[in-house]
Amino acid sequence: MFGLLIAGAVVAICGYLIVNRYKAQAVLICGGFVMMAVAVIFDFGPILPAKASTGFAWFDLFKFVDDLASKRTAELGLMIMVCAGFAKYMDKIGASKALVHVAVKPLKLLKSPYMVLCGGFLIGQVLHPFIPSASGFGLLLMVTMFPIYISLGVDRTTATAVIATNGCLDLGPASGNSILAAKYAGMTPVDYFVNYQLPQAIVISLAMTATHYFVARHFARKQEDQLPPPAAERDENVAAKAAGETLPPWYYAILPAVPLIMVLLFGYFKFKGIKMDINVALFIGIFVAMVVEYVRSLDLRKIFSSMQTFFDGMGVQFATVVTLIIAGETFAKGLQSVGAIDTLINYAQTAGFGKDGMILVMSVIIMITSLIMGSGNAPFFAFSAFAPDVAKKVGAEAVNILLPMQLTASVTRAVSPIAAVVVAVAGVAGVSPFEVVKRTAAPLAVGLIVVQIMTYIMF
């Protein structure tokens, strides 16, 4: 009980600091160290097993981080960094923009603004696995889909809300959260995506699409949005930027999909007995893009120079996502060291919670922390490490706990007014993030409910 009280206090303090924009990595690592220090002082047990220990308990705190950083950077971290580098390169050569522009063309054939909203949301769900950054994807849609919505009479806030939720399902083998979840579940990211994420994503997307339709009509009837001249001028600027944008040829739209197609064909279906992992597929995708760029420009210096974008993308991802994973797992180790997780599990089991009850409890924890932090990554990285142990103690598979946790984290993010994607798209549209989340709340609440229903049906 004492350990649980210490953990609760540390979690509350860390949450307060993160909400107030203290750096999440530093906060989580320090929080983990504080709890591990308490475990050492009160002799809750060793931080490291005897074989891995330095021989001095206080040095073991740092040895744990060293071992963790070495392991995560060499395996999981490299995969995440390569995915990010590929995404940055696709953006650099304009392939991401070409993909979105080709995908949204059918929307212009629809005349009903509400049907266009629904169609745009569904297209977003299909495109997001190819463009994993929620904020980057949202900003890209602001210069492609947003002008279409506005031209059909959709109010700016509703249009912005739909765009803010386009990346709410963190899907695909290129997603950092998906890669981490697959790691803890003991499977490949492709297996995790095809067999577990995809069935849920289809149902969740359809349910949220229907909800968006009725929410948009509800707010249209209320006519809450009055377009002042500066906002109308901003809309014209966004539309003008979209109209005047220089795009590469249409076939560039295929390039972002090359790695996913290859990893599904060879990594999942094992076509002609060929095996392929995500990193190999991404490197091949980069090579194909370089060849296409060279054939188009015949400028070898330009092609080689553009590769720096790939390496820069890898570096940025290490500085953000990989370090956040290390910090989150350090925090998780602290919670485990003081016995907080075991205590919670014991309480849940005493209260009669089985597998389904524990899935709900872990999802609620993730939902609350994601809403407060405005992030889908930080809470999932901090709590996902518990999933295998929790699952084992309630007689479930790790993926039974991880899948709803991961989807809950990503869905909840878009209902937080401090989430990066909400703030970014609201800033472009010139509307309040709080008004945006009023319109995202209902579709995302439906999404969260469907996550739990689908988890119950699947497992």
Automatic annotation (TrEMBL):
The chain crosses the membrane at residues 24-44, 137-154, 201-220, 250-269, 276-295, 315-332, 353-373, 414-434, 441-458. It is a multi-pass membrane protein. Its main location: membrane. Keywords: Cell membrane, Membrane, Transmembrane, Transmembrane helix, Transport. It is found in: Cell membrane. GO terms for molecular function: C4-dicarboxylate transmembrane transporter activity. InterPro entries: C4_dicarb_anaerob_car (IPR004669), C4_dicarb_anaerob_car-like (IPR018385). GO terms for cellular component: plasma membrane. It comes from the Bacteria. Coiled coil: none annotated. Belongs to the DcuC/DcuD transporter (TC 2.A.61) family. This is C4-dicarboxylate ABC transporter. The lineage of its organism: Bacteria, Bacillati, Bacillota, Negativicutes, Acetonemataceae.
